[in-house]
């Protein structure tokens, strides 16, 4: 008789840093009487499919406030160039995690159902390594906005390329329907380390 399959452990990680070039200290910016980060954490607590949640930060000020509203905290190295690296360090403290979902710390209206959907997609297909949330962009005036990351999908809805610029270039009369991801993505825990070891790509010129 085969032993029962191990239950997946889905870890939600909320990376939060102080030293943002565009908005220093943004995670602690007050919004309706609470720090922005607290709104995100409380929304994530409504998820049904996460096994655990942790805030990953390199700043003691953020860690202290997060702990004051009851959030588990992983204090990471201040030398990480990206949130992905911060998540990779945090994952080392959760060897039981089978899947990891990155949840942006500046989205106070993040939809718990969307996080749960990613968790279901990841665990339903053992061959699926990564998944991201994306939706058609219905307002064409947002197309050139560099704050909205666009993604090119193939016919199988697999992501081919991400860019802050419109892709591909649209000619006059075209009706663009790009898909912007919302910064929410997940992956199997066993591929986190290979991703973390890859050097960052050179900037396009």
Strand arrangement within the widest β-sheet reads 5-4-1-6-10-7
Query: What is the SS-derived class?
Result: alpha/beta
| C-alpha-based Rg, rounded | 18 Å
Query: Helix count, per DSSP?
Result: 5
Structure commentary:
By secondary structure, this protein is α/β, with parallel strands linked by helices. 22% of the residues lie in helices and 22% in strands. The chain is built from five helices and ten strands. The strands form three sheets. A six-stranded mixed β-sheet has the order 5-4-1-6-10-7, sandwiched between helices. It has a two-stranded antiparallel ribbon with strand order 2-3. A hairpin with a 2-residue loop joins strand 2 and strand 3. The longest helix has 13 residues. The C terminus is likely disordered.
Describe the structure in brief.
The protein has 205 residues and is an alpha/beta fold. It has five helices and ten strands, in the order βββαβαβαβαββββα.
What attributes does this structure have?
205 residues; alpha/beta; six-stranded mixed beta sheet; two-stranded antiparallel sheet; 5 helices; 22% helix; disordered C terminus
Spell out the blueprint of helices and strands:
Elements: E1 10-16, E2 30-31, E3 34-35, H1 36-44, E4 52-57, H2 60-68, E5 73-75, H3 83-91, E6 99-102, H4 112-124, E7 130-134, E8 150-153, E9 159-163, E10 181-188, H5 192-197
Parallel strand pairs: 1-4, 1-6, 4-5
Antiparallel strand pairs: 2-3, 6-10, 7-10, 8-9
């Amino acid at each position: 008789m085969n032993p029962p399959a191990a239950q997946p452990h889905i870890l939600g990680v909320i990376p939060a840093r102080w030293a943002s070039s565009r908005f220093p200290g943004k995670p602690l910016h007050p919004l309706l009487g609470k720090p922005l980060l607290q709104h995100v954490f409380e929304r994530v607590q409504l998820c049904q499919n996460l096994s655990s949640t942790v805030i990953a930060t390199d700043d003691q000020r953020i860690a202290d406030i997060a702990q004051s509203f009851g959030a588990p905290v992983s204090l990471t190295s201040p030398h990480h160039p990206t949130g992905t690296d911060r998540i990779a360090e945090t994952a080392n403290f959760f060897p039981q995690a089978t899947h990891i979902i990155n949840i942006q710390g500046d989205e106070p209206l993040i939809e718990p159902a969307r996080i749960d959907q990613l968790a279901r997609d990841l665990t339903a297909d053992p061959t699926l390594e990564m998944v991201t949330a994306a939706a058609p962009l219905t307002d064409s005036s947002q197309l050139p906005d560099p704050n909205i990351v666009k993604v090119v999908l193939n016919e199988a809805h697999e992501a081919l390329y991400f860019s802050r610029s419109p892709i591909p270039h649209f000619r006059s009369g075209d009706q663009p329907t790009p898909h912007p991801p919302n910064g929410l993505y997940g992956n199997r825990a066993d591929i986190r380390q290979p991703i973390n070891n890859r050097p960052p790509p050179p900037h396009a010129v």
